[in-house]
Design a protein that fits this description.
There is one protein chain. The chain has two domains: 225 residues, Rossmann fold (3-Layer(aba) Sandwich); 239 residues, Rossmann fold, CATH 3.40.50.300. The longest helix is centred in the last third of the chain and has 26 residues. By secondary structure, it is of the alpha/beta class. It starts with 12 loop residues before the first helix and ends with a helix. Strands 2-3-1-4-5 form a five-stranded parallel sheet, with helices on both faces.
C-alpha cells in the first residue's frame, strides 16, 4: 500500500481554511449522532516516528466534547505483567463504550512491526498475530463498532529533518528515541515491513487510510474528511444485519441432552475416598501449571439448581488461593452492556500459570440473551462462531479451556426448587426468575443443544456432568480437569 500510494492534491491556503472549518463543524455535529445511535468508534493512529500523530490528534479531539472520548497511548512495549495475558488483551480492555470515541496513539500494529524489526517474531508468529487482529477487528465491526485506521506517511528526508529539529531543541530532544533513529537509518526496510502489515490488515470493514503527513493542517483535513465519511456510512449501516459466517473449526459430536443417561451415582464411601485423592492430585498439578506458566479457563454452564456451585467449590478447595479466581457472571453492568459482549470476559482472563473459573459464561449470549430478547437474532446467530474464535485465541495463547454443562432433568430441578423454597436458610437461592425460566424448559433445552453442537470444538469441547447425583458430577469434573491439566503439562514438557 505504501509503495503504490499516490498523494492527494493539497488544496490552496484559502480552500484549506474553509474546508477545515467545515469538517471540524461536521465532526462536532456527528458526536451527538454517535451518542444517540450508541455507535462506538475506535480511531487508530499509526505511522513513522516524528510524523506528527500526537499533534494532529490534539487538533482532532478539540472538536469533540471531552466527556465523549478517551485517548490510549500504546507506544510502550507490553509490561511483564501484560505479557502474561493474550497478545490482544491490553488493547481490548481499552475499547470504547457505545456512543463514545476511543483514540489510539498506536495500537496493535506497533507491537507486531516492532517484533518483526527486532526478530522476536517468527514468520509463523507474525501470521498468527495478523489472523488474531483481523478476527477481532471483524468481530468488533460485526458487533456495531466503527474502526478507522490512519497511517501517517512521510519521506525519509522529511523524517530525518524532523528528527534533527527535535534533537536540536533541549525542550523536545526527549521525544526522539533510538527506535526513531534506527527507523530513519533503515527506512527502506521499515517501509517494506509497514507495507506488508498494512496490506495484510486492510479489510473493507476496517480499511487503512494513508495520510500525507508532511503538512500538519493538510494531515488534519485528510483525517477529518475520512473520519466524517466513515461515521456517516457507519450510521447508515448501524441497524443492518451482518452476514452469518460458516463454521471453520472441527467439531466434536455430542449427544442431545435427552439422550444422556442421568442414573449415574457414587456411594458416599467411594465419594469421600475419591474426593480426597483427586483434590490432592489437583493441588500438585496446580503447582506444576504455575511453574510452566500454563493458563487455565474452566467454564461452567448448567440448569438452575443443577449443582454448579458445589462442583466449583470442590475444585477450588484443591487450589492455591493465590493462583485462581472464581468469576460469578450475572447480568452485565451498564458499562459492560455498552461494549462488545465478550469484553467483560477478556477483562477476567487469568494470567499465565493461574486458573480462571467462570460460574456462567459468554454462552449467555445464545441462551438467556437469545430467549429473553436481550439481543437480536442476528447477534446470537453470529455468536456461535465468535465464541469459537474467542476460545481458539485462548487455546493458541496456550490456555487449557474446559467447558462443563451441568445436566439434570426437569423433575430433579422441581424437587430442588421446592426444597429451597421450603427451607429458610436456602430461600436466598431461589428467585421468581428461576421459576419463570423453568416454564421455558423446552425452549432452553433446544437452545442448549444447538449451543453444544455448534461450539464443542476439538480445542474446547463440552463435557456434560450428570448431576442428579451431585457427588458423581463433582468426581467426574475433577477427573476431567486433572486429565486435561496433566496432558497440558506433558505437552509443554515435550516442546520446552
Amino acid at each position: 500500500m505504501l509503495k503504490d500510494y499516490v498523494k492527494e492534491q493539497k488544496p490552496g491556503k484559502e480552500e484549506m481554511k474553509a474546508a477545515l472549518k467545515e469538517e471540524r463543524a461536521g465532526l462536532s455535529a456527528y458526536q451527538m449522532k454517535i451518542k444517540e445511535a450508541k455507535l462506538p468508534v475506535m480511531v487508530i493512529f499509526e505511522g513513522w516516528g516524528a510524523a506528527g500523530k500526537g499533534s494532529v490528534l490534539g487538533k482532532i479531539i478539540k472538536n469533540i466534547d471531552p466527556r465523549f472520548f478517551r485517548v490510549s497511548t500504546m507506544d510502550k512495549a507490553p509490561s511483564e505483567d501484560e505479557k502474561r495475558y493474550p497478545f490482544l488483551y491490553r488493547y481490548l480492555v481499552e475499547i470504547p463504550e457505545a456512543g463514545k470515541f476511543q483514540f489510539f496513539d498506536t495500537c496493535w500494529m506497533e507491537e507486531v512491526t516492532q517484533g518483526v524489526f527486532s526478530g522476536s517474531l517468527s514468520e509463523e508468529e507474525y501470521d498468527a498475530r495478523i489472523h488474531s487482529i483481523n478476527t477481532i477487528e471483524r468481530q468488533l465491526t460485526d458487533n456495531g463498532y466503527l474502526i478507522v485506521k490512519f497511517f501517517f506517511n512521510i519521506s525519509k528526508k522529511e523524517q530525518k529533518k524532523r528528527l534533527s529539529a527535535l534533537k536540536d531543541q533541549e525542550s523536545t530532544a526527549w521525544r526522539v528515541n533510538e527506535e526513531d533513529l534506527w527507523q530513519n537509518e533503515h527506512y527502506n526496510h521499515c517501509q517494506e515491513v509497514f507495507d506488508k502489515y498494512l496490506t495484510d490488515n486492510n479489510r473493507s470493514t476496517a480499511p487503512w487510510y494513508i495520510i500525507d503527513a508532511k503538512d500538519k493542517k493538510w494531515a488534519e483535513l485528510q483525517i477529518l474528511r475520512y473520519l466524517n465519511q466513515a461515521i456517516d456510512t457507519a450510521l447508515k449501516n448501524h441497524s443492518l444485519a451482518v452476514p452469518i459466517l460458516q463454521n471453520t473449526f472441527r467439531l466434536k459430536h455430542q449427544p442431545l441432552l435427552k439422550d444422556i443417561k442421568l442414573n449415574k451415582t457414587i456411594s458416599d464411601e467411594r465419594y469421600k475416598k475419591d474426593l480426597k485423592k483427586l483434590q490432592e492430585e489437583l493441588e500438585t498439578l496446580h503447582n506444576e501449571l504455575y511453574l510452566r506458566k500454563i493458563p487455565v479457563v474452566i467454564a461452567y454452564e448448567g440448569w438452575d439448581a443443577a449443582g454448579k456451585g458445589g462442583n466449583i467449590k470442590r475444585i477450588a478447595e484443591a487450589l492455591d488461593p493465590r493462583g485462581y479466581v472464581v468469576n460469578p457472571i450475572a447480568s452485565p453492568e451498564p458499562h459492560e452492556k455498552a461494549r462488545f459482549y465478550l469484553w467483560r470476559f477478556w477483562n477476567r482472563l487469568p494470567k499465565t500459570g493461574h486458573i480462571g473459573i467462570f460460574d456462567r459464561t459468554w454462552y449467555g449470549r445464545v441462551m438467556v440473551e437469545r430467549l429473553e430478547g436481550y439481543c437480536s437474532e442476528n447477534d446470537w446467530q453470529r455468536a456461535f462462531n465468535e465464541m469459537n474464535e474467542f476460545e481458539k485465541e485462548l487455546s493458541d495463547w496456550g490456555a487449557v479451556v474446559i467447558k462443563f454443562w451441568v445436566q439434570i432433568d426437569s423433575d430433579t430441578q422441581l424437587a430442588r426448587f421446592t426444597d429451597r423454597q421450603n427451607t429458610p436458610e436456602k430461600q436466598w437461592k431461589i428467585t421468581d426468575e428461576d421459576w419463570r425460566n423453568r416454564e421455558k424448559w423446552d425452549l432452553y433445552e433446544g437452545a442448549i443443544n444447538e449451543m453444544i453442537q455448534k461450539t464443542s470444538t476439538t480445542f474446547a469441547p463440552w463435557y456434560v456432568l450428570e448431576s442428579v447425583d451431585k457427588k458423581y458430577a463433582r468426581i467426574k469434573a475433577l477427573k476431567i480437569v486433572i486429565k486435561r491439566l496433566r496432558e497440558a503439562c506433558e505437552a509443554y514438557d515435550k516442546t520446552h
